[in-house]
## 1
Amino acid sequence: MAEAVKALTIARRRGMTIRVAGESGEGVITAGEMLTWALARAGLWVTTFRTYPAEIKGGPCMFQVRFDRKPLDSPTGPADVLIAFNDEAIALHQHAVRPGGVILYDRHDDGSEPAGLRPDVTARAVPFGKVALESLQNRLAKNMVALGATYAAMDLPLDSAKEFVARRFGSKGESVVSVNVRALELGYELAREQLAGLGRLAELSEEDDTTAGASDGATGRMVISGNQALSIGAIAGGCRYYAGYPITPASDILEFMAAQLPAFGGVTVQTEDEMAALASALGASFGGVPSMTATSGPGLSLMVELIGLGVMSELPVVIVDVQRAGPSTGMPTKTEQGDLNLAVYGGHGDAPRIVVAPVSVADCLDVGRRAFQLAGRYQTPVIVLSELVLAQRTESLPVPRGADLVLDVEWGGADADGKANGRLDGYYPRYVDAGDGVSMRPLPGDPAGLHVITGLEHDEYGHPNYEPEMHRRMSDKRRRKLEALQREVEANPGTWVERFGREGARIGLLGWGATYGAAKEAAELAEQLGIAVRGLWIKMLSPLPTRTVEAFVRDLDVVIVPEVNASGQLARYLEANGIRGNIVSMVKYEGLPFSADEILARIVEVAKGS
Amino acid sequence: MSMVKTSALPRLQDGVAMTPADYKGIKPIWCPGCGDYGILNALIQVLTRNQVDPARLAIVSGIGCSGRFPAFVKSYGFHGVHGRVLPVATGLKLARPDLTVVAVGGDGDGLAIGMGHLPHAIRRNVDITYLLFDNHIYGLTKGQPSPTTEVGHKTHASPYGVSEYPINPLAMALVAGATFVARGFSSHTRHLADLIEAALAHRGFSFVQIMTPCVTFYDTYKQWKQQAWELGEDHDPSDFQAALRLATEAEGMPIGIFYRVERPTLMDRLVAGAKDAARLQSGTRYDREADARQIDALLQRYR
């Protein structure tokens, strides 16, 4: 049955998907990035997915580009075209080509065929490497030859590819640019003879309203990754201090901040470890400067003691965890949604904190900004759970206006005037509960605001206090801040959940993070098969908008919860939060994201059973 | 006096006068006779002498008997977790260059659990002062050996005597590249106050090891009083090799400024190195219009 669903998915799958595969070092990623950029430049909506080895050189990697005239939610799923730079790439990736799809591979110099080619695809041997070697004396240029051929097959103008080459290789000198441009042209010419009969490869949707306002191509779109979007969002949200320790797949946030923050009057420090990163971010935050650190699971494990300190001392800070497969060092270059438990519960004692999770590249920009609002307003650490596939996914998006992105900054500095009257030895009562658990927070420099903060249990003045009543009161205070946030979110659920699908459907999809795209596409495909599905993606995981989730689950016969982890962390978390219903946990733990057809298969199964 | 660039201490407005009593926070809870009282008094002497604005002074601490120190001085304070004093102080100073930031911590906090941070704080040369309260023992947890406890010393946790060799904090700070290295003794309060004053005025990372006996778990008063001797004019604090020899070979327990050199701070280098550091230099963190323009320019790169 899974095969039947797959066939249906493919028949109805929108847009076009090209997968480039080869050995790391063969220019796979460059080719993929170029294709992405050129397609976006041509006015199409593009989304991408890549896998690569943990080694610097060698090992198989691939870059998949999916595009259409309408926006796409998910880059995963079967490819229409596979461009294979070597025989191993064919062996590893031909399973991902749809029946009737095309494989373009580098022709063997002796003219022999690769072993085990699938019979249900059109395979064309094109002498990418040979042309590169003979015409340019450089076999490494074969990726450009292959790209040139692909452009020809898709009827894409070669100008955009040449422009990309100039941008990417311009700093390496004119000769590098000209060799690559020549390679593109050779591939373009080659395609006329070699790919004749394939026709135009791209069959795309008709343009419609969804593209309105964004179809102005070159001027209105950008191609950006999840990590880039998150970084820009953070700066727009007010981030002016960044500290981080290098770790895959979060290092490019550190690199981005190091390059960009000074122009905004901000500072970036690469620290000696993740504990120092978060500790220094808390120091900056105490000084009134919005601060952030980004890491992956192993780093978040190390940061746990400082998360507790942030909660106890009530300091705002933003912690980004770009999740990768764990436990321990795990699989640094493979994706997983495995850190939900750690993010929500990690640490000793009761340490309520805010946990949010973007669902798409566009959402990375938005959640990156709003995380700072949350942290500042509730004076507590905010953990942003991103994922490797989201962080590295490049996508075409309409370019927002900077003026619409920049948020007001609220990061302490409350007017302490008069509050220090009735002071204890001249200290400011930093932890007086204003009702919703949040206190005024004067900043160093304010003569009326002197206070000491501490990781010890303390009284309203921040002075250590272990009285039974005090621990109860302060524990309640810290929890009440999150209850206030929870009420706010329940009152405006649209701010922290995404919904899709059909009202009144009896089958539901419930999840978090980057599974959103594949799930939404699965729901759309199910609809075309006559199965009504609706979905709810939770973007705020702590505090959980329990009533919103309950209301969603209540009206459904069955709720499928797809997650990229082994234990079904969200499904268990829902149960722990008293969400009752016919919840079916669906887990995948292979280091790879879901594709729509996998989720659709489960929907069809469930629909037949009910 | 040499023409050394110094960090000016934030002074109170004219017309406001603070006495030593005004600089006192809540009542300290150390054991009677603890050396830490001497350090507290020395710091308060310095603050009073310079009429330091308490609102622009921030004291950061870790865990241990020294951890409560920030609450005992009238200023802003951050009593953090064990071993992370220097990263917290670094973040605070980089975010708020206008503040005078003093980090305090014990030999356990700074040389055991927090040792990984010390050489990095040193090589960053952030403009903060680190007072290492060294009593050669874990006092707050009741007497376990620390990284500076002598070999053979018996405690409940080392019933057959300490087997590890002690760390030499001054030599370590010197070879890590510290720009200000000194040792004081809590019993020589006036001398210590002068050291702390010089450390605060030093522009860059200043490291002061302060010998402070624990009367309850490892009483070294008598021994250190006999061993301590103040460095004189014959020591040249700009001579690195002399400082290193002093730290490793000297008889007894020399106290004073071992080494002092002027070098750009981390902030100096960040400002000098960045492509567009005008706002970093002027401290302009927010400017809605400029921010929006800058973000527009960033987004342009992805077109």
## 2
Amino acid sequence: MNLAHTVSIAFRNLFRNARRSSITLLSVATGGIAVLMFGGFVSQIFHGLETGLVLSGGHLQIFKQGYFHFGAGDPASYGIANYDEVVKTITDDPQMGPLIAVATPQLTLFGVAGNFTDGVSRTFLGVGVVPSDRKRMSTWNHYGMKFPAHPIYLEDDQMETGVVGEGLARVLHLCGPLEVKDCPQPPQKAETTASVDSDIQALANAETHGAASQTQDKGHPKIDLLAATAQGAPNIVTLNVIKAQNQGFKEIDEIYVGMPLALAQKLIYGRGTKQATSVVVQLNDTLTLSNAVDRLNQIFQEKGWGLEVRTFHDLTPFYDQAIGMFRSIFAFLAVLMGAIVLFTVINTMSMVVMERTVEIGTLRALGLRRNAIRLLFLVEGALLGMVGATLGVIMALILATAVNHSNLTWLPPNNVERIPLMVDVLANPRLIVGTWILLVIIATLSAFFPANRAAKLTVVNALHQV
Amino acid sequence: MAENTDALPVARLTGVDKIYRLGDVDVIGLKSISLSIRRRKFTVIVGPSGSGKTTLLNLLGCIDTPNAGAVEVCGQDIALLSDNALSDFRALKIGFIFQNFSLIPVLSAYENVEYPLLLTGVPAKERKERTETMLAAVELSDKARHRPNQLSGGQRQRVAIARSLIKEPELVLADEPTANLDTRTGAAIIALMRRMQEDLHTSFVFSSHDPQLMEWADDTVSIRDGEIIDIKVAS
């Protein structure tokens, strides 16, 4: 008897006990739905995290060698003086250029930010960027995510304007002028203490006085940024804060200052050679990341520039940790669902074999070999898996479409705003095919033990089973 | 010189013992049975319930093995065959008719009759011709597409008879084929079996606890408590 006949008979056998088969198929389908829906949700999280990181820090950053490990304590010594040449070289490179969406210099620095009018200050993390490049970066949306990128408020021609984290705005008593929502008011001070910051205040006054002639006060609050220059001398600039933007993490939110690159360079290098601490590179497609890193390393080696490349995986370990955690949860759920499907199908097939013992004896008496009996029940298990998995895929697609159009929102980690709850099932053919195949394999394996028992029955005992 | 195969028995049992173990108790199924079944004859094995009729048919059908003695069917010592070889042997040489019909519920009457030909790899065209012929022979052409649960008991047994004969076996075994049928239908089934046996010149062995069926037989084997008590051979 050929396989087609076996499949035909096995398929008809599925409908012999329609209720039991329906429940089994539903169990398989439910397992598939759970895996696909969670897989689709996790996939959305992965894409969301990746998109967020690529929007803010690009796919990779180019540093002077050693910066990644030691630069935070001494950014001035790890500057890239020829950053314009680096940007031009990599964007003009015939291999690298087509991969790049945006390549832009960035200067990261640390210092003290003060609102000396209110007598408050704190250390800050400053990021100097090229606003027009950042605006281009903010359009990257390879995965078609439905949440907006952080708007870029900086402008190339407004050198002394900047943004701060909402946490820093709160600490510096800027919530009112910057219209920060849900911001607690500071307690009233009994007496203003100016003695501690008197030197800084004097320096700030001098800077503010000087800057007043360059920039018009448009009603934005001002803060003073104090940092050590590359030569080690203190330097201070005044920043017109035009917006407070939540940075997601409280630790970053309370120290973040975003400003134009030119202002950051003025603070760190004064009138000296302007440098950048990194060149941020945003690629068109994340899949080309590995090729891009290889090519960049090749270029830098050829040029002898002493630069190194760090991907967003290196720069944000949280990303890989989050991916790993969600993958573990997904694997746990998949194993759990697989076990449920396994035991459900084993139970069903065991009952099937028990009920059809006489029939097994008849088939054996007619001349069907043991292997053919085994195959018949294995095919029945496989068909249960195939039909159940197909139902699961169809139902998951319907459910995912319903969720995606339900306008439900959620607040993921590292996000400041609720985003639409999306489940990426249809966009994940690998997930669909993988889940389908896994369910069919589990169902077939589940049928193996009952099928084996059926094959091992002696004809006489099977025929006379009551 | 060619051997006259008709003179050879279709099955031969020599000193066969069959003992079943039920818990700690040995139950004797057959005791020192020696028997030859004549080829192309209609043989009835009669005896009361528990006399060993089914055990004897199981051995003849190569679906059970003796504890002692030899069983030779269609000239083949079945002790020499592996499990797969025995399956193939049954598929080719032996037809079964069961008391409870034992049709495959998901197959139509046509497919049930056709099934043994699938096991022996008969080409599709030939299968179709032979199946239709056999269904016509048992007067069930109009029920070809019916499933077993859409057929009466007599019709089911006719399908089973057609199924057992379609592969033109050398030996057909029927274990109390009328036990689940009313008297009239049972008689009709026996008459059909007898007619088919004569038409196809097949060796038929069927068991019954009803001595009245002996009138249909060429040969009769009476059995009681696992022992043959009488053999009547038609002249």
